[in-house]
């Protein structure tokens, strides 16, 4: 083979290799996006369930207060899981902000048999209102993009 033929073969092999790497890179990026959308969906679902549970307890004269603390724990667990899987420092900071905000409402003690006092009920009522007003509800549009999640977190954690 001539030197020029070798150069052409090398260029073709290089081109095929680069195309394969590009396709693999796109596949990895898509997998990453899907993974994060799943995690964001879990956070959205758990916070929306918490909002519904708080409203249910208000409507039913706080008949099963334990449900609120269990739903809060579920939401916090989802936030922790997503934060642990996040590679982007800015996104991780936003998720930690959400975690720290929700942690303020965590019930001290056994969450299996809960009896809330008036201040805790008021705090949960206000949390339910903030969840609803910031879009963490089943009545809101379902958009799991990072910009939407970030906006909802900022609305929720904004001091009023």
Describe this protein's structure:
This protein has 160 residues and is mostly helical. Helix 1 packs across helix 4 and helix 2 runs antiparallel to helix 3. The chain has a single domain, classed as Four Helix Bundle (Hemerythrin (Met), subunit A) (Up-down Bundle).
Brief characterization of the structure:
The protein has helices at residues 3-59, 66-85, 89-103, 118-133, 146-157. The chain has 160 residues and is mostly helical.
List keywords for this structure.
single chain; 160 residues; mainly alpha; Four Helix Bundle (Hemerythrin (Met), subunit A); 75% helix
The 3D shape can be described as rod-shaped
Radius of gyration using CA atoms only: 23 Å
Subunit organisation of the chains: single chain
CATH topology-level fold name: Four Helix Bundle (Hemerythrin (Met), subunit A)
Strand percentage, roughly? under 5%
Measured distance between first and last alpha carbons: 77 Å
Structural class: mainly alpha
Query: How large is the count of helical segments?
Result: 5
**Highest-level CATH class:** Mainly Alpha
Question: How would you summarize the topology of this molecule?
Answer:
Blueprint (H helix, E strand, L loop, with lengths): L2 H57 L6 H20 L3 H15 L14 H16 L12 H12 L3
Helix pairs in contact: 1-2, 1-4, 2-3, 3-5
